[in-house]
Structures are given as structure tokens and as C-alpha cells.
Protein 1
Amino acid sequence: MKLYMGIADAWDLGFRSFLVFIFAGLLWLKFIDPIISCAIGFPIPVLVGLFFFYRGWLNAKKDWIKENLEWEDLEEQWEVN
């Protein structure tokens, strides 16, 4: 698997995903738990946190690809000149 971000960026994204997990869990407990049983109350916030991490990883991959394409264009321009 290719790493598209540094350790610090991955750590930051993981921590923000954990905060999203906590926030989704608190929202679940406050608003949905009185209506629906808590049996599925844990997997839903986990999925929300994982989705947040996955979306951030994909954005980092897109940025990495875009940066590589820009470098290739610059190298081609330097070779022509």
C-alpha cells in the first residue's frame, strides 16, 4: 500500500476521525438511543469515523497524484527549454 501522507498527517487524520467517532456516538446517545436500541449504537459511530478517515485518505491521494502530475509537467517544460 502506497503512503500518500506523512506520519504526522496520518496521525492527525486518525485523531480527527476518533473525534468524529466520539461526536457521532454522543449524538447517537442523545437523540437516537431513546428511540432505537443501543445494540447497533456502537457500529454506526465506528463506521462514521472510518468513513471520515477513508475520505481524508482519498483526498490525500488525489492531492499526491495532482502534485506528481504538476512535477511531471514542470520536468517536461525544463527539458523543452
Protein 2
Amino acid sequence: MEKALFHVMDDDERIVIFSMDHDGNRTVFCPGGQAVDEIWPRYAECKALLASWFDHHVGKVAASPYAEYIPSTPAYPRGLACALTHDSILSLWAYVTAPDILVSVAQATRALGGSRVAAERCLEEAGVSPKGNGTGHRKLGVGDIQEAFGRDTAGRIMLYSGQVADFLGVLPDSVPDIVKRLDMGLPDRSRVRVPWSKLRRVRRTGPRSFELAR
């Protein structure tokens, strides 16, 4: 079961990220093996309050003003994030993202350039292997591509609404308006296209606000 990343925020400051499964079970996410107090220095002051909140909410239907979310479903972490955001007692907010953006082999090979056969060979030689996404299609992680080929190459990957939504922690329907406001998309007749070089600069500064870092 793929786990989601559950971001707990205080205004525009990230308090902690949890790795969370579909039942709401969580562990502190510490990339690079860093110590919790080093990467999340403010978590200690909120730890007991958050633990109490999760003890009370996890395992129950998570309700927001707009929907209800059932435990053991992929959307349940999003439901908990909505419930936390609308809880006036905490004065915090939260959102959920995917652990990595998954792209098609075609998207990856276009970023690498040259023929598709040659690009696929480069991917194979670099050890960038497909990940499961539950649909049966071959998908590659943007993080793996960036690690293997560098930021410039990965930055050329063109991402679509669902993938942008996975990174920003929003619903796909919200993406076109966000892309337009931040002026970071490229023209396309039928769908949003955003280069990873721009998308990775976007930061959430509030439940409905975003900024594009320079």
C-alpha cells in the first residue's frame, strides 16, 4: 500500500511531515535519515497535541464541510487533513501529497531527448525502474529520474493536472486556476502542462495560497 505524505503546517511553516497509510497510521517522515529534532524542530512543541488529535480522529469517518472520508480508502489521509484544517482548536492546517510524482515512460523519454529506444536504454542503464501505481501502467518516479540524470534533465519533464495535483496536495480540478495564477504553465490545446523545473519551486503558504519561489 503506497503511503501518503501528510504535511502539518502553521501558517507557511511546516511543523512536521508524517508518512501515512490508508487507515491513518503514521510515522514521522525524515528524509535522508536526519533526526526528528533536526529536520522538524517545532514538532516537539506540537507532538502531544497532535497525538491527542489523531487518537481522537483516526479510525473514524473524517468529515470536512464538503465531504466525508472513510478509513481504509486512498482518500482517507486527505480527509484527515481536511478535518485538521477545519479544527479551530488546533490553529494548524494540513495537506496531503504523493511520496513521488509518477510519470509515464513517454514523459520521461521526451525529457531525455533522442529516440525513444535510446532514451529507454538510458533509463534501464541508470537503474530507473517502473513503480506500480495500481493501474497496470508503467510509471517512473520523478525523484529517481532527477537522481539519475540531474535537475536540468528532470526539469524538462512536462507534467499534467493529476501529477501537479499530487505534488501540490490539491484536487486536479483546482490545478488550471493555480497554474494560471502563478503563470507557470505552457500552452496546450486540451490540458495543463507544467515543467518540473517550475513546479518544484511552488510552495504552499496557506490552505488556498501558493507562491512560486525565485
Protein 3
Amino acid sequence: MSAIDVLSEIIAQGSKARAASYRFRHGYNALLEGGYLRETGVVQAICCQECDDPHDAQIVFEGGQYGFYCSDLGFVPLSRGQASAVTPDISCLVAALADSFVTKRRKTSPLHGETWRIGAVETAGGNVSIYFHPRLDGEQDLGDLRSALAGEVKSPFRLVLTASGGLKFEDATAARLADVVEVDCETGTLTTTVDPGTIVGAPARRAGGRPNQFGEALAGIIRSRIESGTALQGRNEEAKAILEVLRLAAPNSTPSLSLIRSYLTNIRSG
């Protein structure tokens, strides 16, 4: 699991997460150092696994110590580290996304509720306006997104990035963060792994060179693996698996990993 997967999982919770559950996950420290996460305060509740019947319990501060009550064990003390919370810094994430995409028309505060405008990028077919909404898991999320975008100037293409879910939205293309960007665990820098224009299907700028000879084969393999249920959930992992399939078939003629990732993102986003 990558650092961006860890960040997405924490964002998707919609509230404070227990830091102790993530401290040893890959990329967690890089996310803290990059400013995408902050350890602050304590969580409100914890799952008690000390007794034979695991249950949720409220965190309390009693006798100068954090802890919770269990009907079998009574008061169970916790260290501050065991009770501390971690929260995502969405403003930091949006700023990093804007830098990575090199956008114009940035906005440094939410449009409405939890919806942010990252900015816009130019393509041969017109601007792609890029937004962020934490989750696209249910109708409430779609309703909140509609309300936020109602006052926005309509652009030829709209892309909504989200940490969780992928419900279809009538006025935009949705894509998961983990399929579009990644965090360098050495530097904490966020980098783009696929062009926004590719995701939304905008016309590509014409350039010299040979045409893409892998497009049809790639699309066929990707769709076949999705339909057969063999596709891996993580975009990077699935791209590597597809590359291995192609190498076995034609070891001297294979596409780049970045090209496979681009096709994966485009097909998965519909």
C-alpha cells in the first residue's frame, strides 16, 4: 500500500483517526513531514479488544490519565500516544495538487462545504477544471458536490478527485487520488502520474513521432481483467501486473509503465 493510499484511507473516515493505527504504515511519516497529516488531540472512541467481546468505548480522561471503561475490566488506561488522533490537512493537499498539476484559477479555501477547487489546466479541447471532494460514496456526497459546483463557471471538462468512492457524476469525471497522484516517501513531494486531459478524454495536443501502437491491446487486456475479476485494486500494482503479461507475450516490445497507468485511469473512470 502506498503513502497516497494511507492518506486516502484517513481522509475517507471523515473525522479524526487513531494515529496508533497508522504510525507503522508505509509512507505515514512522509505524510506527516509533508504536512498532509497532523497529529493533534485525541480520538473520541476506541475499539476495546482487551476482553472477550470487542466493543466501542468512549475515551475519557480520569485521574490524570486517558483511558476507557470496559464492562469486564473496568477502567483501561491508555498512554497519550495510544489515544492521540491524526487528521488530514486538506488545504495542504489541495495546494500540493495545484502545484503538481500547475493549475491556474486556484482557490485556497473550500467552494462550499468540503468541496475545493484545485484549479484549471489547458488542453487542446479547452480547460479542465479540477476539484477535490473527500468522498463520493453516496447520494449525500453527490448532493454536496452539486451544490458546490452550481456557482462555478462551466468549463469544457471537469475532473473531481476523491479519496474514496467513485459514483458517477453527471457534470464531471471522477477519479480516485490513488489513481492520479503519488507521494514521494523520500521528499514528501506529491507528483502527478497521469495527465488530467487523459482522464476526462480531452483531445490530445498533436505531436510528432510514431502513433501509439499499444492502445488497442492495452485497452483489451485492462477490460478483460476487470470483467474476469482478476484486476488488482491498486492502480500501480495492476499496471505492473499488466506489464508482466505483455512482457511474456512480447518481451522486446512493451509499453511504458506510465502509459499503462494512464490507460488504467481512463478506463476505470469510465
